[in-house]
Amino acid sequence: ENISDFSLNITDCTQVVVPEEVFFTVAAAGILENLLILIAVVRNKNLHLPMYFFICSLAISDMLGSLYKTLENIFIILCKMGYLTRHGDFEKKLDDAMDSMFILSLLGSIFSLLAIAADRYITIFYALRYHNIMTLRRALVILAIIWTFCAGSSIAIALFSYEAATVIPFTILFPLMMFFILCLYVHMFLLARSHAKKIASLPSSTVQHRTNMKGAITLTIFLGVFLCCWAPFVLHILLARFCPHNPYCACYMSIFHVNGTLLMCNAIINPMIFAFRSPELRSTFKKMFYCSK
Amino acid sequence: MSALRLISNRTSQQSLSNSDYTWDYEYYEYGPVSFEGLKAHKYSIVIGFWVGLAVFVIFMFFVLTLLTKTGAPHQDNAELSEKRFRMNSFVADFGRPLESERVFSHQMTEESQSLFHFCINEVDHMNKEKESQKGPSLESSTHFQEVPKSSGMFEEDLHCLAKFNIPNFVNTEQNSSLGEDDLLISEPPILL
């Protein structure tokens, strides 16, 4: 890694190095997995539903995140090998483009998760009117708005990333959206609980009173994975902005590569907890693989 | 050429708060950091952050588990039968045959689960509209039935709506062996 070339005097907290093979493997796996989901949704007409479009949007943002990391690594290797100068204008533009790709990926992930949660919420609470509320056209319009907004803000943030004013809203947005998504799911949970109560109270039912653990586990996995994969990186950005000279902050920033690898792991895990839960998508995959053999 | 480079260097330095731009993680462009006289462990932020995150996730899990705990039923019987009647009349509105003799199967299809949710939701919301006495009066408890594949009228809608994949507190898998925690509607089946 290039870190040894720095004129840093961090003698005690050396960079934690992740081998490049691990980096590239994780990134490639993330890109491939999400690409498969996109292909499956495009090919199967049954999957042309708003719900799957939102899952595709999540897959695209995961792919962008992994792509960003891969490209960055490639460029760092090229720099090490001397093909790229480290002070060039072209490289600066490239770096800005890559930063905006990363922020686009983060914002896209957050908004896609929000869209998926909102879609499920409407499905449960406005079930009969769902078809009128969430038409295919509206879903596409929503996705277009989301991605335009994300693209615009990512470019703006990348250009003005040295101002504190852009870092703060960026890092406030992250917990805010998480909290909102959590509220949506908690409300759905409360409805599920009232359903269970109603069934339990039917005189001819012999239902036992117990907790429904699977829902709690599923939701904890949803949000826990997102938190654990993105929060370290966001904290890194915060610390780099506000306390770069503090030794504690510097030690946290020394595990930057581990945080980056976690980001790419998120791209691998997200399809498993969103896309692969759908039986229709799984059967499409099976058909794709068996047909190709 | 060199003038251009000077300009570009200057602008990049203007925009940067620290040393001149290099192709790398700018976060590490800072000057030497001294590690003298640290009171706490040097990785304290790392440890504190991960411990805090783990505690938060576990706390969230416990809160969600508490939320999904089914409590003891304490509803009024009259209120119950009224709700059941509305639910039945609502079900009847969609023109599907109401067979009170059908046993509620352990393996609910996605469609009937969705319909169940529709019924529960919409009954609560459409109190005024469903006062008309449609459908046969069913004094017995509510029945849930599998949507026959040939039901026609509502089937397409149900198919589409049933493809949603909400968190697994509603199990939408058709052929899975339903474990204890999978269903809202638990075993044994409701016999009519």
UniProtKB/TrEMBL annotation, chain A:
The chain crosses the membrane at residues 22-42, 49-68, 102-128, 140-162, 168-192, 213-235, 255-276. The keyword Protease does not apply. One of its GO terms (cellular component) is plasma membrane. It is a multi-pass membrane protein. It is found in: Cell membrane. Signal peptide: none annotated. The keyword Repeat does not apply. Keywords: Cell membrane, Disulfide bond, G-protein coupled receptor, Glycoprotein, Lipoprotein, Membrane, Palmitate, Receptor, Transducer, Transmembrane, Transmembrane helix, Ubl conjugation. Residues 33-274 form the G-protein coupled receptors family 1 profile domain. GO terms for molecular function: corticotropin receptor activity. Hormone receptor primarily expressed in adrenal cortex that plays a key role in regulating adrenocortical function. Upon corticotropin (ACTH) binding, facilitates the release of adrenal glucocorticoids, including cortisol and corticosterone. In addition, MC2R is required for fetal and neonatal adrenal gland development. Mechanistically, activates adenylate cyclase (cAMP), the MAPK cascade as well as the cAMP-dependent protein kinase A pathway leading to steroidogenic factor 1/NR5A1-mediated transcriptional activation. Belongs to the G-protein coupled receptor 1 family. Homodimer. Interacts with corticotropin (ACTH). Interacts with MRAP; this interaction targets MC2R to the plasma membrane. Interacts with MRAP2; competing with MRAP for binding to MC2R and impairing the binding of corticotropin (ACTH). This is Adrenocorticotropic hormone receptor.
UniProtKB/TrEMBL annotation, chain B:
GO terms for biological process: protein localization to plasma membrane; regulation of adenylate cyclase-activating G protein-coupled receptor signaling pathway. The chain crosses the membrane at residues 43-67. Coiled coil: none annotated. The keyword RNA-binding does not apply. InterPro entries: MRAP. One of its GO terms (molecular function) is type 5 melanocortin receptor binding. It comes from the Eukaryota. It is found in: Cell membrane; Endoplasmic reticulum membrane. One of its GO terms (cellular component) is plasma membrane. The keyword Transmembrane helix applies. Keywords: Cell membrane, Endoplasmic reticulum, Membrane, Transmembrane, Transmembrane helix. It is a single-pass membrane protein. Belongs to the MRAP family. This is MRAP2 protein.
